[in-house]
Amino acid sequence: MPRPQSTQIIVGPSGRGPSGSSSNSGGNFFTRFLREEIFAQDKRPGNIDILISTGLFAATIAFLQNYGVELLSI
Predict the structure, then answer these.
(1) Which parts of this chain are annotated as the region Disordered (predicted)?
(2) Residue 20 contacts by C-beta under 8 Å, 6 or more apart in sequence?
């Protein structure tokens, strides 16, 4: 006697988008954020601008804390 096929019942969203691929196949939130927002080719120029600006700001603060009194005093 043949065995009946078992059916799987899924409760809730299946996690698959319209294309059939899993929407969370890229890992957790942090790794998806890094891949899609930080290292994405189309967003790289803007991210480099932000990195340079932040680095220049931090360097200016550090420089003025170390040498600001001598440079700004009259």
Answers:
(1) 1-28
(2) none
Q: Is 58 helix (H, G, I), strand (E, B) or coil?
A: helix
Q: Going by C-beta distance under 8 Å and a sequence separation of 6 or more, which residues neighbour residue 36?
A: 26
Could you read off the pLDDT of 3-38 as tens digits, one per residue? 667 676 666 555 554 544 445 566 899 999 999 999
Count of beta carbons in the 10 Å neighbourhood of residue 32: 14
Contact 33, 27 (CB under 8 A): no
The reported pTM is 0.56
φ, ψ (nearest 5 deg) of residue 61: -60, -45
